[in-house]
Write a structure and sequence with these properties.
By secondary structure, the protein is α+β, with helices and mostly antiparallel strands. 40% of the residues lie in helices and 16% in strands. About 7% of the residues have low confidence.
């Protein structure tokens, strides 16, 4: 049975609760879809749209447009100042959100492992390959996790959100644990999980304990964010998604080197990662 809620709703509720934690924040641009502080950009000459926007025209359009890169570069100084004004980063976390199927019949493939209803989500090879590459590059400083809620009804989701219980009812599993597997299963958020096809049992994963163990003390905010984005870029260029990433990089005018506007380019690269894979970047202070 497919979970009866939208993955985007879970993601939003999860992020709100995570941001409420005393030592977690989201840097400017991190949870903004476009990575530029805006949700959408457009170049339009539609008279209807401009009338709706309060700027009707007949012969000459007042707003001619500007290259997105030119606008973006103007934001670099502000982005850099915002990053420098927050505490030193202690840990970076990459989340891959999953909406699970809820299996209730004894004929389900993994029922023999659980003997009761359980949750299951698929592991997609291209996505997993990227996560594994990132683990190789940043495994000692970046925590890379799958996050799947142990709930199947929108009423539960809203109730947990209201009572700030989303994280408590989410199952976490380091992506590297699932290398070679096609799916992961669990019965409750606070229990072990069993990865398949060749079953492997993994004990309960405590995300808060893991966050406390992973601290960056040798890099400042600027260096950490730029370093991570460079590694992500290299990983995407080496992955099966390299052609798609290159096309987006050309569209967003991401330069070969991030020496120009490094903070801004870092955020654009991370936003592109999310656009291609759904992987969400979070940092804690």
């Amino acid at each position: 049975m497919r979970a009866r809620y939208e993955e985007k709703t879970f993601e939003g509720y999860f992020n709100v609760e995570l941001a409420d934690c005393s030592d977690v924040y989201y840097p400017l641009g991190q949870v903004q879809e476009g990575g530029l502080g805006v949700d959408a950009v457009a170049l339009t000459r539609s008279r209807w749209l401009w009338r709706r926007l309060g700027h009707p025209y007949w012969l000459r359009l007042r707003y001619k447009g500007q290259r997105l890169r030119a606008i973006a570069e103007e934001m670099e100084q502000h982005l850099n100042e915002e990053i420098q004004n927050v505490p030193a980063i202690k840990s970076n976390v990459l989340f891959q959100y999953k909406r699970s199927n809820y299996l209730t019949l004894s004929t389900a493939s993994e029922w023999s492992f659980w003997g009761r209803p359980y949750f299951r989500y698929d592991i997609y090879p291209e996505q997993q390959t990227i996560l594994e590459h990132l683990h190789v590059k940043f495994g000692k400083s970046v925590l890379i996790l799958y996050a799947a809620p142990a709930l199947h009804d929108v009423n539960e989701l809203v109730d947990y959100h209201i009572n700030r219980k989303i994280i408590d009812n989410t199952n976490f599993r380091p992506a590297v644990d699932l290398t070679g597997h096609g799916r992961n299963t669990f019965a409750d958020a606070g229990t072990h999980s069993i990865a398949c096809s060749d079953p492997v049992r993994y004990e309960r994963f405590d995300i808060l304990e893991a966050l406390l163990e992973r601290r960056l003390t040798d890099q400042n905010n600027f260096e950490s964010i730029v370093s991570l984005s460079k590694g992500v870029r290299e990983t995407l260029l080496e992955s099966p998604l390299h052609r798609t990433f290159s096309a987006l990089a050309e569209r967003y005018e991401i330069p070969e080197s991030v020496a120009s506007a490094p903070v801004l380019n870092a955020h654009i690269i991370m936003a592109t990662l999310r656009e291609l894979t759904g992987i969400q970047w979070v940092v804690s202070a």
